[in-house]
Design a protein that fits this description.
The protein is α+β, with helices and mostly antiparallel strands. The termini are far apart. It has one domain: Gcn5-related N-acetyltransferase (GNAT) (Aminopeptidase). It has a five-stranded mixed beta sheet with strand order 1-2-3-4-5, with helices on both faces.
Length: 149
């Protein structure tokens, strides 16, 4: 039975470290010049300040997925609280069971409680999440471009 819940980052940080490496190997581009190096202190600070919303998925207690979002008033719209997705990942063996959808639903419910008005998601082109976004009534609004210097 898979359980999806809201957790404090500190409560799953060690498990996150392992799953994050799997995530990075699967989706990161330019790994040879952009090494994985999470700023755990910053995650912990943001969580303490109420600026992090983490939903997790566990199968028999083991972390199998996460949805981590940063919550803050927008720099251009300071009276409106936005959430920006930082990471969304479900271990490969648990995909296709709506775990990603449930992670997002749980995060959305929590963010509504925190008065978030706009939730921005992003995804790698090679890892299309349009079906999930459509299912949850997200709409496409921007394209992100990257240039490694």
């Amino acid at each position: 039975m898979i359980k999806v819940q809201i957790e404090k980052f500190a409560d799953f940080m060690e498990e996150f470290d392992q799953l994050c490496k799997q995530h990075w190997h699967e989706v990161a581009r330019n790994r040879e010049i952009i090494p994985l190096s999470p700023d755990y202190n910053q995650y912990l600070k943001l969580d303490e300040m109420g600026m992090l919303c983490c939903s997790t998925a566990r199968d028999k207690g083991k972390l199998i997925g996460y949805c981590i979002n940063i919550i803050t008033p927008h720099m251009h719209y300071s009276k409106t609280i936005f959430a920006l997705n930082d990471l969304l990942f479900v271990t490969r063996s648990k995909r296709g069971f709506f775990v990603g959808t449930e992670l997002l639903k749980k995060a959305i419910d929590e963010m509504k409680k925190r008065n978030v008005k706009v939730f921005h998601m992003h995804a790698k082109i090679a890892h299309d999440i349009k079906p999930i976004m459509k299912r949850l009534d997200f709409i496409g609004i921007e394209t992100i471009y990257e240039k490694v210097l």
